[in-house]
Automatic annotation (TrEMBL):
Chain segments annotated as coiled-coil in the UniProt record: none
UniProt-annotated location(s): Cell membrane
Top-level taxon: Bacteria
Protein name from the UniProt record: Sodium/proline symporter
Functional description taken from the UniProt entry: Catalyzes the sodium-dependent uptake of extracellular L-proline.
Family label: Belongs to the sodium:solute symporter (SSF) (TC 2.A.21) family.
Residues spanning the membrane: 6-24, 67-92, 123-142, 162-182, 194-215, 227-248, 274-295, 320-345, 366-386, 398-417, 424-442, 448-466
Membrane listed as a keyword: yes
Amino acid sequence: MDIYQIISISAYLMLMIGIGWYSYRKSTSNVDEFLLGGRKMGPAVTALSAGASDMSGWLLMGMPGAMFVSGLSASWIAIGLTTGAYLNYVLVAPKFRIYTEKAGNALTIPDYFENRFHDHRHLLRLISGLVILVFFTLYTSAGMVAGGKLFESAFNTDYSMGLWITSSVVILYTFMGGFLAVSLTDFVQGTIMMIAIIAVPVVVFLELGGVSATFDAIETINPGHLNMFHGTTWVGIISLLAWGLGYCGQPHILARFMAIDTVKQVRTAKKIGISWMIITVCGALSVGLVGIAYLEKTGQSIADPETIFIFFSSELFHPFIGGFLLSAILAAVMSTISSQLLVSSSSVTEDFYKSFFRREASGKELLLVSRLSVLLVAIVALALSLNPEDTILELVGHAWAGFGSAFGPVILFSLLWKGTTRNGAIAGMVLGGLVVLLWTYWEHPFSDMYSMIPGFALSSLAIFIVSKIDKRPSKAIEKEFEEVQQVYRDDY
């Protein structure tokens, strides 16, 4: 590793730890602040935090790698995700911000489900808490794998060492500063990611003689790579677009909507968040595409397509700048890991420990449990990351589909249809999660279809059918629903 890269990476890591220490002193006096920042986040921090925690290492590694291998046909996933993120801001964010506060000031997704449906038996809390722990363990593991790959590919270090360095820093600042630390570091990380993802393709285009010359070279090398339909099927295209369905069920993104200061600020957050997303996604796709022409021109090759961004960082820039660009991957990885650790911690604390074991627990006790939960989930995810068998994109895809199918339909129905019942929500949540697991890990002739499609569809159908044949929700639940709709109309 070059000394300039060491300085650049070290400065970034120290900045993250510094933010963690600042947040520890500023906003962790009680469990509410540790888990949700006291609902005081501004629109810019909310938007970039949601984006950075969403994108993770697959933005700078998984997506460029897919583009490098498949060409423009891989861009369908970007279209699906951008559309899904926009609809999430429109359909979910404002009402969810209002409803989570109205429904007993819910601090977690399971907390919201229980309060929204007045589930006094705590079944919704238990089931949703288990879903979070299962799928977030997979998701967190994907981020740690990306960190290990970064150090292995960029610095020729042992994969395990990279895994430990990445995970240790994230655990430290999350453990210290909670939600404020995670949100502030996400804001910084999102900014770094955007700068890096613009800089790399621009420099490569200049090296290759411009956009037109680059595209001509790509078409010559791989005919069809600039055709969005080349090598695709309708099932494949729909599967990639279906990634967008997952947004309304991702706890680490929904938590940002819960924490924004006022519902009116959601509009500003939407503009910032979607603009950031379009820029970064287009940049990531461009990195993979220009890599084809550059490697052909220079006669070089890479063993793993998911390391094309790392290759460019070392190949085209001064080591100090290259270190900054590699920090962007660390930023992407860390932003997601920290968010997932915090949501998992909140679930362990609020949805299991407090609800089922220590209802009378003090604020200090719950704060301690929250911090210990960060360590517990991190240890399990680390164990799964030691010998990864799937690509980063595959690992993320499994977890994304799990949350999208188990939580997405329930969130939408709970916000948009007052006839949704508790039993309908339970049926949709259980069926959606099970379908994804079975579709992913059992062999069947329809494996080309992304598990999100059957999972989301069957979950929605189950919610509708069970709610229709179930008892009508109580007048108290319907009244609360109408009050939320009125606040939405008045304030948003």
